[in-house]
C-alpha cells in the first residue's frame, strides 16, 4: 500500500498479460476449432445486442418490418406495379452493394478489405475505357450496370468527357463513400462508451515516439482543436490513420452529427471526386497506350507482360461491340483476367479470415474480463 493505493500483485499483472497474449494467438491456422467456436459465440452476442437495440426503437423496427414485408408481397404478386417494384429493388440492391463494400473497406481498424482497388476503381476504369471505345456514355440498360455494351447510336447529351464520366459513376462512388463513413462509426462509439464508463482507449496512447506515433498525435490534435473542419480535412484525403479521428472524437465526446456529417462530406463528396478524377484520367485512351509502350520497354519481362495486357484489352473491347450480352462467348477470358480473379478471391478470403480471428479474439478478451472481475 502506497499513498492510499494498493499496488497490483505481480500475479495479477502476469494473468492479464497471459490472457492478452492468449487472445492474440487465437487464430484459425493455430487453433481452428476454438477460434470458430469463439467466433460464432461472439457473432451471436453481437446479433442479439443489435436486435435488442433495434427493438428499443419500436417505431423504427416496426417501419422496417412493414417495409420489408410490403416489398416482398408486391414483388411476387403479379400486376402493373411489378415492373416498378423490380426496378426499385434492383436499384436499391445495386446501391446497397456499394454501401456494403464501403463498410468493408473501412471497418476493422485498418484491417479492412480495400474494395476501392478491387471493385470501385475497376468499375470506374471499365466505364472510362468503354466510353472512349464507344464514343458515348448512353449504354443500354439492361445490361448496364452489370455489363457494358456500346449503344447503337450515341446520344449527344452523353458525349465523352471527364465530367460526364464522373456523372455516370457518381451514385456508385457516393454510395461507396457513405459506406466508408458508416465503417468509421465503430471506433467512435467504442471510444465514446469507454470514456463514459471511465475507461481509456489504448490506441490514443501518446507515449509512442515513432513516426507513426507522431502522426497519431498530429491527427488527434487537429481533430481536438479544429473540430468539424479538422474532421473534414482528415476525411477528405486518403488517410490510413482516420480511425484515430473517430477514436479521438468519441473520447472527447464530440457530437455524433458533427463527426458523422463531416465524415460523410469528406469521404463521399470531396475524396470520392478526387479519386474518381484520378482513375478517369489514368485510364483515358492515350495514357493506357503510353503505359503499354512503357511496359514493353521493361527488360526481359516487358514483352511477356504486354501480351496478356493487350489480349485483355482486346477482349474487353470486343465485348463492348456485342449487340446482345447473352451472345458473348463464355471462354473469352485471358491469363490476366484469371490472375485478377484469383487475386480478388484471395483478398476476400483473407478479409473473411481476419474477421473470424478478430471476433474470436474479442470473445476471448470478453471471457478474460469476466474472470478477472470474479477474482476481484
Automatic annotation (TrEMBL):
Q: Does the keyword Protein transport apply?
A: no
The keyword Transmembrane helix appears for this protein: yes
Q: Which domain of life is it from?
A: Eukaryota
User: Which residue spans traverse the membrane?
Assistant: 55-77, 97-120, 222-238, 244-265, 277-295, 343-364
Q: Which UniProt keywords apply?
A: Membrane, Transmembrane, Transmembrane helix
Protein name, entry field:
Vacuole membrane protein 1
What lineage does the source organism belong to?
Eukaryota, Metazoa, Ecdysozoa, Arthropoda, Hexapoda
Amino acid at each position: 500500500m502506497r499513498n492510499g493505493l494498493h499496488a497490483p500483485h505481480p500475479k495479477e499483472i502476469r494473468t492479464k498479460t497471459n490472457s492478452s497474449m492468449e487472445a492474440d494467438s487465437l487464430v484459425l491456422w493455430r487453433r481452428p476449432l476454438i477460434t470458430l467456436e469463439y467466433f460464432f459465440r461472439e457473432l451471436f452476442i453481437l446479433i442479439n445486442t443489435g436486435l435488442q437495440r433495434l427493438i428499443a426503437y419500436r417505431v423504427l423496427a416496426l417501419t422496417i418490418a412493414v417495409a420489408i414485408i410490403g416489398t416482398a408481397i408486391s414483388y411476387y404478386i403479379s400486376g402493373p406495379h411489378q415492373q416498378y417494384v423490380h426496378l426499385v429493388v434492383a436499384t436499391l440492391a445495386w446501391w446497397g452493394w456499394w454501401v456494403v463494400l464501403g463498410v468493408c473497406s473501412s471497418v476493422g481498424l485498418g484491417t479492412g478489405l480495400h474494395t476501392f482497388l478491387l471493385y470501385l476503381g475497376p468499375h470506374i476504369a471499365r466505364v472510362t475505357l468503354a466510353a472512349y471505345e464507344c464514343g458515348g456514355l448512353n449504354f443500354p440498360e439492361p445490361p448496364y450496370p452489370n455489363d457494358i455494351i456500346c449503344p447503337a447510336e450515341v446520344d449527344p447529351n452523353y458525349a465523352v468527357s471527364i465530367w460526364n464520366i464522373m456523372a455516370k459513376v457518381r451514385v456508385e462512388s457516393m454510395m461507396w463513400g457513405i459506406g466508408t463513413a458508416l465503417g468509421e462509426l465503430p471506433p467512435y462509439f467504442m471510444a465514446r462508451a469507454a470514456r463514459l464508463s471511465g475507461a481509456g482507449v489504448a490506441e490514443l496512447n501518446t507515449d509512442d515516439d515513432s513516426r507513426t506515433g507522431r502522426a497519431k498525435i498530429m491527427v488527434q490534435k487537429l481533430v481536438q482543436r479544429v473540430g468539424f473542419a479538422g474532421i473534414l480535412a482528415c476525411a477528405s484525403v486518403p488517410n490510413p490513420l482516420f480511425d484515430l479521428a473517430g477514436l479521438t472524437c468519441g473520447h472527447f465526446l464530440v457530437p455524433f452529427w458533427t463527426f458523422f456529417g463531416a465524415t460523410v462530406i469528406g469521404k463521399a463528396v470531396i475524396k470520392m471526386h478526387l479519386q474518381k478524377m484520378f482513375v478517369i484520367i489514368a485510364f483515358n485512351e492515350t495514357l493506357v497506350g503510353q503505359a503499354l509502350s512503357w511496359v514493353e520497354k521493361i527488360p526481359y519481362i516487358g514483352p511477356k507482360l504486354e501480351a496478356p495486357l493487350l489480349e485483355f484489352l482486346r477482349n474487353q473491347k470486343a465485348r463492348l461491340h456485342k449487340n446482345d450480352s447473352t451472345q458473348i462467348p463464355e471462354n473469352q477470358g485471358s491469363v490476366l483476367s484469371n490472375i485478377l480473379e484469383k487475386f480478388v478471391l484471395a483478398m476476400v478470403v483473407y478479409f473473411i479470415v481476419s474477421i473470424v480471428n478478430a471476433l474470436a479474439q474479442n470473445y476471448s478478451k470478453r471471457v478474460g474480463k469476466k474472470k478477472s472481475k470474479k477474482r476481484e
